[in-house]
């Protein structure tokens, strides 16, 4: 018979006479299972077991990755497509442009709060159902914002749409890790990150032409809702579960049902999750990492600045190309194409460094080499301020052709992509045991930067002028420039001083979870 006594970590502990476990009026806890309990565990049957997403065929991986990529694109698209509808919203509801801009910032605030729930849910219930369910509710809120009859309904709908849109941003990276090994994961994550940045730059272009057409500003929300509905249908039909623990739990449940042997289970079913555990692992630990680990703090501040610039450009570009150059508002969004191409260039730079990283990985017995992730980031950290200064001193001079500031986006976009992506890869490699918490801390802070920067963009560029407003951003980028170089030199030394990021994984990896619990308390 199956031993029904709780796991030793459960709040109620086993007593010698087992009198606390009465199963029926005349029955108490039966004797525990005899022999080796491991014979009842459901595990992978081999390297080619279909439960292991890494063993899937290339076509199967690409199909699942494409669906996840579309989910990500829709989520990031929804954040910035609203920027082109700010003026129509301002006029319709009788509020100022800055107040109307809250529809953008509240959506991004949803990005900050959502992952605190989606990350643990994906660890408990797998990747598929959180993404699918979040996609459905996101779609509902997008249609609610499209049909809102008052301003507060629009703002609340945008915020909750952002909360549920954050699910793929928090979960898809884990799904890619389920499917792709160390040698191919870098390329897969680069493609995923490109979608995160392409959405905010493509949607203002489309949204501007929608707003200027007979459809009007509300159709920016309608079309995003239609895209969300399509993503939901694709999730239902094509998206497969990739999380190994969830797949093996389902396999164990099926075997129990078919055989009647209720001792068969997956080891994860012995886990006991309570409120305190969730608090320590998914709330307190990210905050501890953020404020007590210099690597996490500085990398997070840097990426938060980059993320803020990303959304600041949604307001700065119209100021430069419409206010100063007199280009019609819809056409003034076309210079975003320079940033889009820059992001793709940055993606190519990261992929070009992957063979070098893989050689270092093999030489290190397939253990991560975090500092090697910083080389593309060094390139991006150099390109980024150059692009900002280029944009600053060519943007507001009509005598200079509009293509010149547009081309600055090649460097700025490449810098955004390489800095952001490799910073996250560095955190994952450096904090392998608690990587999810390190990324949660990063996501939490950077989303507030992304929400806040657009609110002062127009005033800053109008009051300081394009040249000095852009230069101020450029000087800040220069101030951040040494970070990847310093961590390349001193990063390993700092990691040796941290119990969260042990450099000797062979010796300390086994006790990492215990250290994590102890420090989070």
From TrEMBL:
Pfam families: MFS_1 (PF07690). This is MFS multidrug transporter-like protein. It comes from Hyaloscypha bicolor E. The chain crosses the membrane at residues 94-117, 129-148, 154-176, 188-210, 222-239, 295-314, 334-353, 374-393, 399-421, 428-449, 469-490. Coiled coil: none annotated. It is found in: Membrane. InterPro entries: MFS, MFS_dom, MFS_trans_sf. Residues 64-494 form the Major facilitator superfamily (MFS) profile domain. Keywords: Membrane, Transmembrane, Transmembrane helix. It is a multi-pass membrane protein. The keyword Transferase does not apply. SUPFAM superfamilies: MFS general substrate transporter. One of its GO terms (cellular component) is plasma membrane. One of its GO terms (molecular function) is transmembrane transporter activity. Signal peptide: none annotated.
């Amino acid at each position: 018979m199956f031993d029904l006594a709780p796991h030793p970590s459960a709040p109620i502990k086993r007593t010698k006479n087992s009198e606390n476990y009465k199963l029926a009026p005349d029955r108490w806890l039966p004797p525990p299972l005899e022999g080796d309990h491991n014979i009842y565990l459901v595990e992978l049957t081999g390297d080619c077991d279909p439960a292991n997403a890494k063993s899937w065929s290339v076509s199967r991986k690409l199909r699942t990755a494409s669906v996840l990529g579309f989910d990500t694109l829709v989520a990031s698209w929804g954040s910035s497509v609203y920027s082109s509808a700010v003026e129509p919203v301002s006029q319709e509801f009788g509020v100022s442009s800055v107040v109307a801009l809250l529809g953008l910032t509240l959506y991004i605030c949803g990005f900050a709060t959502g992952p605190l729930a989606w990350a643990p849910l994906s660890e408990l219930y797998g990747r598929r159902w959180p993404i699918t369910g979040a996609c459905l509710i996101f779609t509902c809120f997008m249609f609610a914002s499209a049909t809102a009859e008052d301003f507060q309904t629009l703002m609340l709908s945008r915020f909750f749409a952002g909360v549920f849109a954050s699910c793929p941003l928090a979960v898809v990276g884990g799904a890619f890790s389920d499917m792709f090994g160390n040698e191919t994961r870098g390329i897969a994550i680069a493609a995923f990150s490109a979608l995160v940045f392409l959405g905010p730059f493509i949607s203002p272009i489309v949204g501007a032409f929608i707003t200027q057409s007979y459809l009007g500003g509300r159709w920016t929300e309608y079309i995003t809702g239609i895209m969300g509905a399509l993503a939901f249908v694709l999730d239902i039909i094509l998206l497969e579960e990739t999380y190994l623990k969830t797949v093996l739990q389902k396999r164990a449940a099926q075997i129990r049902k078919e055989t009647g042997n209720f001792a068969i289970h997956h080891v994860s079913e012995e886990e006991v999750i309570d409120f305190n555990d969730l608090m320590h692992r998914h709330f307190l630990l990210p905050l501890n990492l953020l404020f007590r680990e210099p690597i996490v703090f500085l990398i997070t501040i840097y990426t938060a600045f980059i993320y803020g610039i990303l959304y600041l450009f949604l307001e700065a570009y119209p100021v430069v190309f419409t206010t100063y150059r007199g280009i019609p508002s819809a056409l003034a969004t076309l210079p975003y194409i320079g940033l889009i191409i820059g992001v793709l260039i940055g993606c190519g730079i990261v992929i070009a460094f992957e063979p070098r990283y893989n050689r270092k990985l093999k030489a290190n017995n397939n253990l991560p080499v975090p500092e090697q992730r910083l080389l593309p980031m060094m390139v991006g950290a150099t390109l980024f301020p150059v692009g900002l200064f280029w944009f600053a001193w060519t943007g507001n001079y009509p005598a200079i052709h509009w293509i010149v500031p547009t081309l600055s986006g090649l460097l700025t976009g490449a810098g955004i992509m390489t800095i952001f992506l490799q910073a996250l890869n560095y955190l994952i490699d450096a904090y392998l045991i608690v990587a999810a918490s390190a990324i949660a801390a990063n996501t939490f802070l950077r989303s507030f930067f992304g929400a806040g920067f657009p609110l002062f963009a127009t005033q800053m560029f109008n009051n300081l002028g394009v040249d000095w407003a852009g230069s101020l951003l450029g000087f800040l980028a220069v101030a951040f420039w040494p970070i990847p170089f310093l961590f390349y030199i001193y990063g390993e030394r700092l990691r040796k001083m941290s119990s969260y990021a042990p450099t000797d994984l062979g010796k300390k990896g086994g006790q990492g979870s215990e250290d994590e619990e102890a420090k989070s308390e």
